[in-house]
Amino acid sequence: MAPSQLRGALNIGFQMAITIGILVAGLINFTFASKDWGWRASLGLAAVPAIMITVGSIFLPDTPNSILARGNTEKAREMLKKIRGTDNVDEEFQDLIDATHAAMRVDGQWSTILKPEYRPHLAICFLVPFFQQFTGINVIMFYAPVLFKTLGFGDDASLMSAVITGLVNVFATFISILAVDRLGRRALFLEGGIQMIVSQVLVAVMIAKAFGSAGVGVMSKADSLLVLILICFYVAAFAWSWGPLGWLVPSEICPLEIRSAGQAINVAVNMAFTFIIGQFFLTMLCHMKFGLFLFFACWVVVMTLFIYFFLPETKNVPIEEMNNVWRKHWFWGQYIPDDAVIGTASSTKIKDMEA
Question: What angle do CA 177, 25, 42 make, to 5 degrees?
Fold first, then answer.
């Protein structure tokens, strides 16, 4: 529903809500940690956002694409006028009609997304969420209190450190909202990747210095504070790059005929590897110790190279016209047929961008 020039910022509102939720959860845990019934509050208060989602869904409007797919052309046009705030939507609406008709000619999304011409979409929808989890962010967000306690922080200090990283997470996500449609997706991906690599290597060096390969030792307060700062540096890098963009990019590259399948793959891969990383982190930390941070740093090197070579810039490109971007790419262009649909309004926008 978002206009192309604001799609990145509005989409990242989703990630902003997640980071605020993480921060609020950390504050709740810190507030009730000393109470015998504190765990009940931590679990029970999760019902609050659940109620908000349920009530909000009652007032959530349908998208013009969805209305068109059900055959209500005039209703779809009125909805597009409403969300754009103007009656001048003829060109964009024609693009939506063309995309809807193309999607309706497809027999099944799952068989369609496996065809060669959708190879770039399939690869991005699988690899981006996969890489997102192998940045190592969830081991920080899930186990921050445990990790900080291991590094020498007390119980309360560990919980407060988790709150601090949560604040950094929110602030950096807000920066991403401001920058994503100005600087583009690739710039944030690449800068964030380099910053995460540096942070993780330095954290590994600090832990190796204090605990060695045996995992036995004591970290001074000054070194513990430095590790906290480095972890915040790492969280900030993730929060304005792989955090929001890991959801944004797969959501904006798929044409209508495979959009549901592409999003399903994106979410399924993300959740599957969230579960896997969450289950094995503590075991990996016990066995690999400081090497765990080097393990994730190596993965960030791989994904940063992947972004550099295989992800084209998608800012300000209407979703219905994303094939233009793929067709010009040095590698993915071989999969995009010459008869890919190019909408009138969107083609004009792309030519203006190129000029």
Answer: 160
Specify the pTM.
0.81
CA distances from 291 to 136, 201, 213, 274 (A): 13, 9, 9, 20
Angle at CA of residue 279, ends 275 and 280, nearest 5°: 120
Number of Cβ within 10 Å of residue 209's Cβ equals 12
Q: How much is the mean pLDDT over the chain?
A: 87
30 pLDDT band, cuts 50/70/90, is confident
Instruction: Supply the pLDDT for residue 118.
Output: 93
Dihedral through CA 274, CA 275, CA 278, CA 279, nearest 10? -160
Q: CB-based burial of residue 58 (10 Å sphere; 0-12 exposed, 13-18 middle, 19+ buried)?
A: exposed
Give the pLDDT confidence of 271-313 residue by residue, as tens digits.
Answer: 999 999 888 888 888 888 889 899 999 999 999 999 999 999 9
- Own/partner contacts of 99-107, CB < 8 Å, gap of 24 or more, are 99/65, 99/255, 99/256, 99/320, 99/341, 99/343, 100/65, 100/68, 100/69, 100/256, 102/255, 102/256, 102/257, 102/341, 103/69, 103/255, 103/256, 103/257, 104/69, 105/257, 106/257, 106/258
Helices vs. strands in the chain: H and E counts, helices first: 17, 0
Structure tokens at 268: 């399924």
86 sits in the region (left: phi over 0; alpha: psi -120 to 50; else beta) called: beta
Compute, in degrees rounded to 10, the torsion defined by CA atoms 228, 229, 235, 239.
150
* DSSP structure string for 103-124: HHT-S-HHHHHTSGGGHHHHHH
pLDDT of residue 100: 84
User: Nearest-CA neighbor of 4 among 312, 315, 347, 311?
Assistant: 315
CB-based contacts of 117: which residues, under 8 Å, 6+ apart? 335, 336, 337, 340
